[in-house]
């Protein structure tokens, strides 16, 4: 368990001072470079045209950190990180896999430490604030329970999938050090501020939106053993043309009459398929000047053309605002999400999780019927990946004076992941495999802020922001795996649950439990 007690105080003094760049107001000519000289001028020394150009330049630079949702909402995104690709300067997005719902890495303004592993990357991701709630990520200690760290154990669904895209009204990437300091240590690696669908006074608004699309399979030219044999033969002839080397030549390449490898390579007809994706959402909001609400319910399905990969998300969001008195405001927000996904059938990922390497001297056959037989074995396997997530807050705001506001909030974020895996003995050289994972990450915080602001004139202002924040994080996971059960019908990792018995936590039903 990790507990943090924070005291945050910030004082901001703003003064509108303009910088003069002589060439800014002049039109560029073809092949000409713009050079910004490091000189400073007072506002009164600038012409009206130079001052207007500078202010427009400053506004355009500051607006780069805000995502234009009109441009990205027309695309069927399921992960928030896909919004930032090519849209925000200084934000690096890495997508290790095209698998829908899987992890995507985000780094803002460069890495602050060396990155040698997935655990290192997890430590430098920016914090995502949803309506002020800092979302908790999966802790990196789960990587320490793995021998091969290609993927984190568990469902490995990226937490950036937990916010429904249709419920987002604005996204802003914060890179300014002063604003990050006001957000606290959680924003040390940058911050992403998300505002969701909220309440609105006036006539009731009801909306139903949906889209449907098809991912078309790519055009791929497969090869068989004949191509591989032609590739290898020149190297053997040049560097290892001996009888002993020929005797060790791979058997599936040496026998050209084996149609499983030298026949037609049509495995792509099963691996790549046209896949459908869709989303449907319902929203309603309305109310009076004293109280209003907003609600969004949605279902989204994403899919890729490869390996029958699918991702499903079910989301419900409620936002309520009340004004009992002119000086007292109550706001509440709840966002609940459930996801499930079909993961890939990659040999590397499966063997890395199991920690077991079978005989790899003979690869999978490119023959269509042989590949179908291999997939039929997976039909008897189990690979369930489910995540549940909820974020919420309740905020009380008091207008003590005209420019003095006190706000007290309780924030909570909870997410859990469940994964059940069973591989039959046909896939494991007569040895079956079972693993069960349950883990959760939770965060709650009490935040009290006092804010004072005063506008001296149109160019100068004073802002004071002080507060106390209590933050409590808890990360926990349970993971067990077992091998070599008596048959392929027992798909549960069963141990003795009697804590008073000498056989407590001992495996049952003939399984060999790995600890």
UniProtKB/TrEMBL annotation:
Instruction: Supply the Gene3D superfamilies for this chain.
Output: TonB-dependent receptor, plug domain
Give start and end of each TonB-dependent receptor plug domain.
Answer: 57-190
Q: Which InterPro entries match?
A: Plug_dom (IPR012910), Plug_dom_sf (IPR037066)
Q: Which Pfam families match?
A: Plug
Write down what this protein is called. Answer: TonB-dependent receptor plug domain-containing protein
**Protein species of origin:** Sphingobacterium thermophilum
